[in-house]
Amino acid sequence: xxxxxxxxxxxxxxxxxxTKDKEKKLLNHLKTCADCARELEYLKQVKRIFILxxxxxxxxxxxxxxxxxxxxxxxxxxxxxxxxxxxxSIVVILIFFSLILGWVSYKKFFYHRTIEIMPYxxxxxxxxxxxxxxxxxxxxxxxx
Amino acid sequence: MEEDFxxxxxxxxxxxxxxxxxxxxxxxxxxxxxxxxxxDAQEAxxxxxxxxxxVYTKAGSFKRxxxxxxxxxxxxxxxxxxxxxxxxxxxISLETEFDQxxxxxxxxxxxxxxxxxxxxxxxxxxxxxxxxxxxSLPERDRIILTLKEMEGLSYKEISQIMKISIAKVKVWLFRxxxxxxxxxxxxxxxx
Lengths: 144, 191
Hints:
Strand content of chain B: under 5%
Helix content of chain B: over 70%
Shape of chain A: elongated
Largest sheet of chain A: none
Distance between the termini of chain A: 115 Å
Distance between the termini of chain B: 48 Å
Helix content of chain A: over 70%
Order of helices and strands of chain B: HHHHHHHHH
Structural class of chain B: mainly alpha
Oligomer: heterodimer
Number of domains of chain A: 2
Number of helices of chain B: 9
Number of strands of chain B: 0
């Protein structure tokens, strides 16, 4: 095992979150590696700093202020409590209706447009045929 | 742990005093966790209130898949993460650099025996210096160091709170300690 892996074990060793087998390997390594032994001392210093840090108290009347807040939360208008849900619902409804509207518009536009241009398409074919017939008639018609 | 489940069960049935007992039991832990991560005592107080408010409103959704403290710490950590992300957008920064006086004070205290610090003022100064070191660390490192060093949670509990594997807890904790050691490099003899 390399020093790098042993260094990670040092941290777990300090926290007593290491198996007996790995602890044995680590302690053997520390006997021969001055760098890792020094690293362990530094980590112990870091741990000690947190012991010295101690704990703080929250500000006075924490529970009183909390229950006041709970009481006031209960007094808010119902619409305010549901407002975030209401906002989200409105957005979903708007998106849904936009999609429906888009689909309806698409269908209507293309349907009516097709109906509009269809006669021109049909007339186009007919006039070509008529044109050829006229040309033939004109060509083969008796003189005069 | 059973006591917490019982109190919660009573609270769910409408017993407000059961909730008050839970608040009294855990307010120090919640407040100090938040203070250690956020770095501001006033904000920590506000956020602690919000955490308990959430517990009050969401108690019904607690399904006993984990212990009550694990659930409570998870709410606390998530709330801290939200707050730190809000701060990133607002570019709020706390003091993180030590001046010469602070370096000497910390060296002096570490050189003395444990239990020698009895003066309240000196202890407060030391807390501020250490909190400065914590403030200089990234969010993830602050959280993991707080949960392990301040709250004394096991690797398993931390993995449940942060929703990561125990192997990751080991590595992240190691890296966080290395970074903190880097910030406190003035404590160590030059190599």
